[in-house]
Structure formats: structure tokens, C-alpha cells
């Protein structure tokens, strides 16, 4: 059986038009070419598709059953062709993006929507990980792009473009002992259990660690749940609190005596210099660079 796209288009058009001659006019063909195509399709399928009694062909029940599948099949064929063309132009077979846990509440999905509009056939895989693990995923090429906080020391292999500023604030449950104080000394913080978002690799020391005693988790949602339960204090994204009034009501932003209790960081889109990026990754990087130019 050797059925091609043109045969399927002709078959679909004949059923929708109601005759060989009407289908021929719509497709810009002579009626005999349409009739011959249908006859060859019937031979290939070993199936009668139209009864030719009277002036116009009448589709058989079998033809109507196949017609229901034909449109979807033609769509899939076109999608296959578009994907093949995109791949020939340098599009990735898949784009893996890792988003640092504390940034999941931000508008990162806008960038994914932009990619979907530009490359509708691209498979996009989104991962979430603590900062240290996200960098590992980039460097071991598990992911091509990462949305993460700025780093104090850059790896020689990484390259980045800045996206925005993000603020993190220290918080505790509204009914916890720490929440009773208007200002907290560094010694009080040092002696209180901290809930930190950290790498799954316990040999890596967590960032923004202040307390001698601390519990680890690999995402800010579980950290928030533990803090709400009064199991410790921790540092959470300010935007997360602003977007969730019910969480904000259960937490108090702590005021430190010795330093400003608000940590502002740039959020970067990061990639590795060691891997060849595809068309979609380059598109997103260039979009962000152009957006920064417009802001300036």
C-alpha cells in the first residue's frame, strides 16, 4: 500500500465538494485526474470508496469512516514537514530549560509561550532545581538554558544575559517566637533554626545560610510550608508573598538589626559556552537582549 498526501487531499476534497468535477475545480485539476486518483486509491486500499450510480459519486460508509481520520492525518503530515524543515534550519529536537526553585512563581512562562508561538513544533521540557543543581544541569548538558540568580563567581564555561531583579525576604510564621520582635539581632538569627532551599547534594553548603541549625529542602514551596508551620525561619521570594495574600497573612517579614532584611539579586538566563545551541535557544537569548536594548 503506497498512499501519498495528494491522494488524501483529493479524497477529502471530493467528499467535501460532492463531485469529481467540483473537486477538480477547487484543486485546479481536470476531472479525469481526480477520477483516476480516486480509482488508484481504491485499488491501493482494495476498498470501494464511492458508488458511481447516477450523476455524482456517493461515498460509501467505509469512505466516510476514513474521511474522519483524513483531516487529522493531513495535519500531522504538514506538522511533520514543518518540523523537518525547522530541524534543517538548526532547530533543536528538544529544548530543556531549568528554572531555579525560587523563581517558579515569576513570569517565566511568558518566555515559554513566546517560544511556542515561534516554534510550535518544538518539544520544550521544563525542570525545577535549586540554584547549585541548576548550574550542574547546564554544565553537564542536561539542560541548554537556565533561569537562575546571579552568581558571586562565574564559571568560565557559562554565559548569561540579565532578565530582571528579584527580591528575597526573611520570614517566619506569624505566631512564632521570632515574629514577636520588632528587630532581631544577628545572634538571635544565628541561634534559630533556618529552613533553606539548597542542592540535593548535601556536600554543597546552602547559599543565604545564617543559622547554625538548619533544615534543607530542594524547593521554595516545601520551605514555605515548613516556615508556615513554625518549624523555622527562612528566605522566600517577596513576589511569592505578594501574589499569595493567604500566605502573606501567615508570615511576618523579619527586620534585622544589623543589616537590611531584603536581598536583591539579578535573575539571569544562563547557558554553557561548551554546547552548540539551536535556533530556539538563540531566538530567546536574542529576544531578551533586544528587550534590554529597548529598556535602555
State the main characteristics:
296 residues, Arc Repressor Mutant, subunit A, D-Maltodextrin-Binding Protein, domain 2, two-stranded antiparallel ribbon, 11 strands, elongated
What does this entry look like structurally?
The protein is built from eleven helices and eleven strands. The chain is an alpha/beta fold. It has three domains: 5-89, Winged helix-like DNA-binding domain superfamily/Winged helix DNA-binding domain (Arc Repressor Mutant, subunit A), CATH 1.10.10.10; 94-164 and 266-294, D-Maltodextrin-Binding Protein, domain 2; 166-264, D-Maltodextrin-Binding Protein, domain 2 (3-Layer(aba) Sandwich). Strands 3, 4, 5, 6, 7, 8, 9, 10 and 11 form a nine-stranded mixed beta sheet that branches. The chain has a two-stranded antiparallel ribbon with strand order 1-2. Strand 3, helix 5 and strand 4 (123-129) form a beta-alpha-beta unit. It starts with a helix and ends with a helix.
